[in-house]
Design goal:
His-Me_finger_sf; 12 strands; three-stranded antiparallel sheet; globular; Immunoglobulin-like; alpha+beta; about 15% strand; 2 domains
């Protein structure tokens, strides 16, 4: 995870274009909390969603899933073959070696449904939704199958980039799961939370794989929470441990161009806790994601960080958009759970907030 945090900071500092191109007013009607907010988001991301068809995904991946972030070699960015810290075990070129048949890794790539399409019987637009349908090595896609995601200590299969399949060790679930490498856990969590929001009105349809049909099915049989408690906790853990990256921002913008809707949990990571907070433990609430900044944007030369009493902050660093460190505080002293950052000139800043367990980076705009 250290590599991704450093990569995230270094890439974010290059240019203002790193920030999502959210259309003006896109989330104006997202005013509620809990599952009310989730339903409001469902309406927002359903409006304008155009099914472009299954075949069009390969062409869309040229923009949405292009390796412009690691080797920067314009190959297919496959989460199951990417090695963020060194040479990839293999690569695929866009529009080449699509599956067909496969017998091992590096034979061909195809389209994986992060939420398995077998659960919804390949119905559209779920089957063709780029926000959860990604390019994947065909063999690894088959190895993962319809297993839910989880955490694995004793894998029965390990991919060439270190992803694992085996018995789950997270929380209460005891079935077989698939664990991607740390670099992409947050990406996958936000895809699954998008799915739970975009399709909340149909996840309990009789045509879907019912909640009790299989130990591999993480649905809980409701339209509001959607996933079982253990799965919500897992996804939230991955969401907070692996914050939104530039790769996800770029993918979200490309998906919006392709099919007309966005993943709200990339644009607004704080929505996850706002919606599913009732499922999460008190310890989970200690996430740095709860730190808020106001006013933001600011028309004055200072902002205030509001930090819940359950959170202990070890370090706060403020960077300019070009990556220059302009302020640093270790073990800051709070006044009424608040901390003021002042002497900010007009511009865009990144605030990196850290404790012993997490790092999170937030944007500040001073107008």
């Amino acid at each position: 995870m250290i590599f991704k945090k450093l990569l995230l900071l270094s890439t974010l500092f290059v240019t203002i274009s790193v920030f999502s191109q959210i259309p003006n007013g896109y989330y104006d009607t997202a005013t509620g909390s809990g599952y009310t907010l989730k339903t409001q988001l469902k309406a927002i991301i359903s409006n304008g969603h155009i099914d472009q068809g299954y075949g069009a995904l390969y062409n869309a991946y040229v923009t949405s899933d292009n390796d412009s972030f690691y080797e920067n070699d314009n190959t297919v960015l496959d989460m199951y073959s990417e090695n963020p810290a060194g040479a990839d075990p293999y690569n695929y070129s866009h529009n080449g070696r699509t599956c067909g048949n496969y017998n091992s890794e590096n034979d061909c790539y195809n389209r994986e449904h992060i939420f398995p399409q077998g659960f919804f019987n390949s119905q559209v637009p779920m089957r063709t939704d780029i926000h959860h349908v990604v390019p994947s090595d065909g063999y690894v896609n088959g190895i993962r199958g319809s297993f839910p995601f989880g955490e694995v200590s004793n894998p029965d299969y390990t991919t060439n980039n270190g992803s694992k399949r085996g018995p789950n060790t997270f929380d209460t679930h005891s079935g077989t799961v698939f664990e991607p490498i740390d670099e992409f856990k947050g990406d996958i969590a936000r895809m699954l939370l998008y799915f739970a929001t975009r399709y909340e009105d149909v996840v309990t349809d009789a045509t879907w794989d019912s909640h009790d049909a299989s130990v591999n099915n993480p649905l809980n049989g409701t339209n509001d929470q959607v996933y079982e408690d253990w799965y919500i906790k897992l996804l939230y853990k991955w969401h907070t441990d692996d914050p939104v990256s530039q790769r996800e921002i770029t993918r979200n913008d490309a998906a919006y161009t392709f099919q007309g809707n966005r993943n709200p949990f990339i644009d607004h990571p704080e929505y996850v806790q706002t919606i599913w907070g009732s499922v999460l433990s008190v310890e989970t609430f200690s996430s740095l994601e709860q730190v808020s900044i106001y006013p933001n944007p600011s028309t004055i030369n200072k902002v205030t960080l509001r930090i819940p009493s359950s959170i202990t902050i070890k370090r706060i660093k403020v960077y300019s958009i070009l990556g220059k460190e302009i302020q640093s505080l270790n073990n800051p002293t709070l006044a009424n759970n608040k901390l003021e950052i002042s002497n900010l000139k007009q511009g865009i800043y990144l605030v990196k907030i850290s404790n012993d367990q997490q790092n999170i980076t937030k944007k500040i705009v001073v107008q």
